[in-house]
Amino acid sequence: MKLGYYPGCSLKGTSIEYKESVKAVCKAFDIELVEIPDWNCCGATAAHNLNKELSLSLPARILALAEREGLTDIVVPCAACYNRLSVVQYELNEHKDLRNRVIEIIEMPYKGTSTVLNVVQLIQKYMVDKLQYKLVKPFNYKAACYYGCLLVRPHNVLNFDRVENPQSMDDIIRQIGGTPIDWEYKVECCGAGMSVSRTDLVAKLSGKIIKDADDRGAECFIVACPMCHSNLDMRRPDINKYLDKNVDSPVLYIIQAIGLAVGLSEKELGLQRHFVPVNLPERPKSIETFDPFLATQSKGE
Amino acid sequence: MSSAHVVHKKGSLMEEMLDQRHLTVQKCYQCGKCSAGCPVSEDMDYPPSVIMRLVQTESKANEDKALRSMTTWLCVTCETCATRCPMEIDIPGVMDFLRERSLQKGITNPGAKNIISFHKSFLDSIKQTGRLFELGLVAEYKLRSLQMGQDVNLVPSMLSRGKLHFIPEVIKGRKNMLSIFKKTLKKGGKK
After folding, report:
1. Which of B115, B132, B177 is closest, CB to CB, to A9?
2. Predicted pLDDT of residue B139
3. Which of A52, A69, A226, A284 would bridge with A15, disulfide CB 3.0–4.6 Å?
4. Pick from B120, B130, B163: which is nearest to A16 by CB?
């Protein structure tokens, strides 16, 4: 199985463990990721905050490069990049005037026909069916699945999962033997791109998220976005100071949880690169008695 | 467009937003759902629904208040407001428009200095190489914002975790990138 792949800048830099774990788990599931050649930054928050045309053109160039290579399905693990690519494709399909202007700017042919997949969709589409054969070490922990903003909103564009109480990651966690908690801050904002320019705001917003999950007994956080990860993980000292409490539950990318469950090593998944140490206790769960199919059927809602 | 019957005052922000960005501020009926759900509204000078109202009045003085507000810069584009708006107004899109316009006019809120410095440093970094060079971004941000000491304590632990990279990745299509920046940001007035 070959899929197009847009890593984006975070995965090449501070979120290197996200890249390592996506690649390692894809390899374990026989998925080959074909990187879009000569890709550029999607522009992230900075571009759409300062200049609309730039914020449309940067992702359009990436999509145009993918089209040129004949890559129809593009895996975009970073939720922010996934959001920008999806929103731009939608806007350019909706509004001919914007589309014509952007084609003029990027000087490349652009059709807008790509299928952009986030990491949860990658798991749902290409991994979930095979989980029952590959599961060697059930992820037997109480997990707070944290979706944040960019994976689920704007709903009319992304059309992914339920918008106020999404379930896709919760389902996946059940399927690998974990127990997702029911909590209030699943889709609240962590402060995102303010991590450097307004760390105080990030400590407050992320602090509320951490506190709610901790109050409800979560042993770990499950995320799908490098910004959510770095805010909950790297900014933990600021968060704990804001909360006046020491919360030490680790933050894992959902793909890392899958990796652990199918028997990949902590090093292959880059867990040693996290700031909050990933010291989950050994807690075996008999695989014979664990049926991932039944696990999804028994969910509460 | 369903709102074509609405007559806007010539040259008002509301008219420009509709014409250029398909943004339908005129549909807001002040239910306040956006302000209620906004994670940063308590830190803003005007909550989002008030910004909408200021723009709706189409008076220069009120438009000026919206453009000079801290609200637009604190907005984290989490899209919660847009999700809950009963009139399906793209409120974050309105914030983007106001930010961009306040930059062009050089009337950004003084409190937003660091936030804007960060965004500008970010764009400068990708303009040069095509991809974000995080170390370069932080260095430039420090120079722009004069926040020299911030986060230096993170450096050793980032290094030991292999998270800091010293050589920027440069794409082949650099010329293409420079031309994209030239065609878009040039109109943006002051840089």
Report:
1. B132
2. 87
3. A226
4. B163
B31 and B104, same domain (yes or no): yes
Taking contacts as CB-CB distances below 8 angstroms, the residues of chain A near B131 are 9, 12, 39-41
H-type alpha helices, A148-198:
155-158, 168-175
Helix (H) or strand (E) holding A50: helix A44-50
Q: A109: helix, coil or strand?
A: coil
> Is B119 an 8 Å CB contact of chain A?
yes
| Digit-coded pLDDT (tens) for A203-233 | 999 999 999 999 999 999 999 999 999 999 9
Residues of chain A positioned with their CB less than 8 A from the CB of B183: 53, 57, 104-105
pTM of the shown model: 0.94
For chain B, the domain total comes to 2
What gap in Å lies between CA A239 and CA A264, rounded to an integer? 31
The amino acid sitting at B113 is K
Q: Would an 8 Å CB–CB cutoff place B144 in contact with chain A?
A: no
ipTM of the complex: 0.91
Spatial distance between the Cα atoms of A251 and A229, rounded to a whole number of angstroms: 7
Separation in Å, CA of A180 to nearest CA in chain B? 23
Looking at the structure, do residues B131 and B75 belong to the same domain, yes or no? no
CATH classification of the domain holding B69 = 1.10.1060.10
3-state secondary structure of A66: helix
Q: Which amino acid is at A198?
A: R
Q: Check A196 against B138: CB less than 8 A apart.
A: yes
Q: Is A298 helix (H, G, I), strand (E, B) or coil?
A: coil
Structurally, at CATH architecture level, domain A2-119 sits in Up-down Bundle (1.20)
Say if the Cβ atoms of B184 and A196 lie within 8 Å: no
Q: In terms of Cα–Cα distance, which of A184, A267, A57 is closest to B181?
A: A57
Model confidence pLDDT, tens digit, residues A152-182: 999 999 999 999 999 999 999 999 999 999 9
A107-132: string of b/e by CB count within 10 Å (b at 16+)? ebebebebebbbbbbbbbebbbeebe
* Residues of the domain holding B153: 111-186
Question: Mean pLDDT over residues B117-142, rounded?
Answer: 92
Residues in chain A, overall count: 301
Contact B181 A154 (CB under 8 A): no
CATH code, A134-298: 3.40.50.11810
Assign B191 a pLDDT band (cuts: 50, 70, 90). very low
Residue B176: list chain A partners with CB under 8 A: 61, 106-108
Of residues A238, A163, A156, A145, the one with CA closest to residue A196:
A238
Examine the domain organization and report whether B77 and B116 are in the same domain. Answer: no
CA–CA dist A299, A282 (Å, integer): 25
pLDDT, one tens digit per residue, over A253-301 is 999 999 999 999 999 999 999 999 999 999 888 776 666 666 665 544 4
